[in-house]
Amino acid sequence: MAEEMAMVESGRARRKFVKTQGRKKSSKKGKVMPSPHGQKKVKIDKKMKKLFRKRAREYNSDDEEDEAIVTAASETRRLASVTNKNNEEDDMESGDNQSEDEGAAAPLKTSNKNATGTNDHSSDDEGDDGNEIQPGITKFTEGCRAFKMAFRNIMKKSVPDDMLGPILSAHKKLVIEKLGEEQAEHNMKGEAKKEKQMLAEKGHVKPAQYLDSHEKFLISVATKGVVKLFNAVNKAQTAQKGLNPSRNKDAKEIRKRAKQAFFSELGKPSLPSTGTSTKINEGTGKVEDQQPAWAPLRDNYMLTSSRLKDWDKMPDKNVSDDFGRTSENSSSDED
Amino acid sequence: MRKNKHGFRKPFVMKKFKQPEEQPTVDPITGKKIPKSFVFSRGKIPASLKQLQMDLRKLMLPYTALSLREKKRNNLRDFLNVAGPMGVTHFFILSKTASSPYLRVATTPQGPTLTFKIHEYSLAADIARSQLHPRCPKDLFKNSALIVLSGFVRGDLPLQLTTNMFQNIFPTIDVKTVKLSTCQRILLLNYNKDTKLIDFRHYSIRLQPVGVSRRLRKLVQTHQVPDLRNLQDVSDFVTKAGYGSESEADEEAATITLSSDLGRVNRASTKSAVKLQEVGPRMTLQLIKIEKGLCAGEVLFSEYGNTGGKEKSDEMEGEEDAEGQKEGEHAEDSEDEDEDEELD
């Protein structure tokens, strides 16, 4: 039992040992890698491998007649790997050289370095990648005649000048149908959009560049109104020119004048065709007869109810009079 | 080091937010209540109508909420709640159906409501585009517009109501105290008896001295050095008569004598011509309905026959129901929204 146990233990130990060995190896590799050149190399190497593998695969799928070339490819791969190793070594050396160069910069050593460069496939001088791929590619392209022929055939073909372009023949109708459908759908969408737009813009009219007769008429009506108002304002303000209504003395004077005007107006026979604005003036004048000019001093300050309160009752006389005039001469009413 | 850093740092200053000036609710001189308005829309409206809404707001300046934001869930009651404390007296409500856009003009809080069908409309931008020299002086929208109503027939109750309504959408002007320089634009409503359509136009007012050649006027107005290349003598600039415009004949009717100076060009006791140029939105309206309440209540007038008929009342009830439901849903939100709007 004890022996067995020992055996087991030893086995475990062995396993452990193996494992540790493996780990050690990996760790070693890791330790080796970290030099900057080495890392780069490894990366490129992987890429290379992928590339070559891909090429080989493609080649295999293309035609399986020439196996010799495949082997050749594999050989090249091996070769490439070998060269890579060499390169690594070279790089290490060159790195050393460079460091030395930096220190001394001796011409002898540089010549030495050049010599080593020429010795090793002259890969150091040009970029590493291009040089390494080169042999593989050349071989590959040389060997692939079928591809060349196929390409030439395709290029020779005269394509009919079709709107759809070259399509696999079986689906030609289907594609046409599909395109037609798409077009129809697009049209439908466009129409729907247009309709929506029309609905949204309903009533929206872009005015003409010129003034038509109707607009001119409207402008003349408005002008008449403005002129009437301005004239009334001038008439009222020339009378009280130089008087400040907020001053008590002037306010008295204004009131006096308004009274006079009011009584003189009473003496006259009623004229229905006086301006609307002047009429408003009279109305306010009446109020101002007994009360101070400044509004807050009046008794009914802020108590004046809006006219619209009893709008649906019988219209008062003032308003009806107003309308009589508006219908007559299309006058203005500024309120 | 640190001290240095701090030394170069820009001192932090609290930004003073300028409080918007409280607009008076009452005219300081005449003592009459100043009408204020909200212009908003109900339902989804297309971009051009949104623009029209903006134009209408500009037209109603300065006593309107220019940047009033409405949300989808705002109902009429929300606006009404805000309108009370802010002293808003009129609502302009734009809406759109499949057939045409509509404009409702209502007084708050009780109504009445006038519903207009907008047959045609042009935006301010369209009109500016159609003009050779669109005019927009800086202070055009600083004062409220004048209003001219013309062609409204006496005796027709709905029309009378319309005139009453529109007379009261702008502040009253006192003829004795008003400054003519504040009268910059005018709103014209012209009723056409035959077609029953109302033309809604918005013009800017410009005064020009009469009897002065165009060149001199321009020289005084713009203060720019005139082009004298083609003239033999400087005196030619003054004496040479420019070509008269076609509207010269009409001008005589449109001249006024000013009592006080108005700007640099228009002097007191000289004759000035009144020139109008269209700005702002242009609309052709048709009065189709009058309701007693605010977008609700008894139908007093309907363009399509049956006044206060069965169909209409049914419709109204339906609308009210819908409104009521909305209120129920958003009863909690409404207060918050009110605050939002006030902040805006």
Automatic annotation (TrEMBL), chain A:
<feature type="region of interest" description="Disordered">
    <location>
        <begin position="1"/>
        <end position="136"/>
    </location>
</feature>
<feature type="compositionally biased region" description="Polar residues">
    <location>
        <begin position="109"/>
        <end position="120"/>
    </location>
</feature>
<feature type="compositionally biased region" description="Basic and acidic residues">
    <location>
        <begin position="307"/>
        <end position="325"/>
    </location>
</feature>
<feature type="compositionally biased region" description="Acidic residues">
    <location>
        <begin position="88"/>
        <end position="103"/>
    </location>
</feature>
<feature type="region of interest" description="Disordered">
    <location>
        <begin position="266"/>
        <end position="293"/>
    </location>
</feature>
<protein>
    <recommendedName>
        <fullName>RRP15-like protein</fullName>
    </recommendedName>
</protein>
<dbReference type="Pfam" id="PF07890">
    <property type="entry name" value="Rrp15p"/>
</dbReference>
<feature type="compositionally biased region" description="Basic residues">
    <location>
        <begin position="38"/>
        <end position="56"/>
    </location>
</feature>
<feature type="compositionally biased region" description="Polar residues">
    <location>
        <begin position="326"/>
        <end position="335"/>
    </location>
</feature>
<dbReference type="GO" id="GO:0000470">
    <property type="term" value="P:maturation of LSU-rRNA"/>
</dbReference>
<dbReference type="GO" id="GO:0030687">
    <property type="term" value="C:preribosome, large subunit precursor"/>
</dbReference>
<comment type="similarity">
    <text>Belongs to the RRP15 family.</text>
</comment>
<feature type="compositionally biased region" description="Basic residues">
    <location>
        <begin position="13"/>
        <end position="31"/>
    </location>
</feature>
<dbReference type="GO" id="GO:0000460">
    <property type="term" value="P:maturation of 5.8S rRNA"/>
</dbReference>
<feature type="compositionally biased region" description="Polar residues">
    <location>
        <begin position="271"/>
        <end position="281"/>
    </location>
</feature>
<feature type="region of interest" description="Disordered">
    <location>
        <begin position="305"/>
        <end position="335"/>
    </location>
</feature>
<dbReference type="InterPro" id="IPR012459">
    <property type="entry name" value="Rrp15"/>
</dbReference>
TrEMBL record, chain B:
<dbReference type="GO" id="GO:0030687">
    <property type="term" value="C:preribosome, large subunit precursor"/>
</dbReference>
<dbReference type="InterPro" id="IPR045112">
    <property type="entry name" value="PPAN-like"/>
</dbReference>
<dbReference type="GO" id="GO:0000027">
    <property type="term" value="P:ribosomal large subunit assembly"/>
</dbReference>
<dbReference type="InterPro" id="IPR007109">
    <property type="entry name" value="Brix"/>
</dbReference>
<protein>
    <recommendedName>
        <fullName>Brix domain-containing protein</fullName>
    </recommendedName>
</protein>
<feature type="domain" description="Brix">
    <location>
        <begin position="35"/>
        <end position="296"/>
    </location>
</feature>
<feature type="compositionally biased region" description="Acidic residues">
    <location>
        <begin position="332"/>
        <end position="344"/>
    </location>
</feature>
<dbReference type="Pfam" id="PF04427">
    <property type="entry name" value="Brix"/>
</dbReference>
<feature type="region of interest" description="Disordered">
    <location>
        <begin position="304"/>
        <end position="344"/>
    </location>
</feature>
<dbReference type="GO" id="GO:0019843">
    <property type="term" value="F:rRNA binding"/>
</dbReference>
<dbReference type="GO" id="GO:0006364">
    <property type="term" value="P:rRNA processing"/>
</dbReference>
